[in-house]
Amino acid sequence: MYYEHDKSGILVVDKYLRLPQHSDVFVLCDCAYVLDWQNKPYSPTAQHVIREVKIMSKNLIFAINGNNQFFIFNYYSKGSMVKIGKRDSVAKMLGVNLIGFIS
Ligand SMILES: Cc1cc2nc3c(=O)[nH]c(=O)nc-3n(C[C@H](O)[C@H](O)[C@H](O)COP(=O)(O)OP(=O)(O)OC[C@H]3O[C@@H](n4cnc5c(N)ncnc54)[C@H](O)[C@@H]3O)c2cc1C
Question: Which pTM was predicted?
Fold first, then answer.
């Protein structure tokens, strides 16, 4: 059976974190290509992973119990930051891009 992948080989899943072609298979974390409400993929980072786990666990229980009212994965990131060298960093906080040294 064919499963849709993104260009880096990650499995494309629906908003319930299921394989579209195989709705009883859930995929999450770095293995899952999930689109947000703006149709952009969530980044493969821990802040998304720990939230996906909560939604997937509930949906898995629903699936086992034959309940089709699944939760949608929808998370608004407050931001992310990358440290560069010893003193600098770049960040996006609440949609605002920041760069440099903040004392
Ligand atoms: C260098 C680095 C820095 C990062 N920094 C950040 C950060 O600052 N903030 C942030 O939010 N995210 C960060 N991330 C991303 C974050 O670590 C991942 O998004 C997250 O760990 C993905 O979780 P996961 O469960 O998908 O995979 P993993 O956490 O990689 O867990 C997969 C597990 O499966 C195990 N495994 C693999 N193959 C098998 C097998 N065949 N049999 C049994 N077990 C197996 C592995 O040993 C591992 O324990 C970073 C990632 C990297 C690589």
Answer: 0.85
Instruction: Give the number of the atom of ligand 1 that is nearest the alpha carbon of residue 46.
Output: 11
Ligand 1: distance of its center to the CA of 89 in Å? 23
**Domain range for 62:** 11-76
Does residue 99 register a pLDDT over 80? Answer: yes
Residue with tokens 């699936």: 63
Position 91 in a domain: no
Pairing mode, if any, of strands 79-84 and 22-26? Answer: unpaired
- On whether residue 21 sits in a domain, the answer given is yes
Classify burial at 81, counting beta carbons within 10 Å of its beta carbon; exposed 0-12, middle 13-18, buried 19 or more. exposed
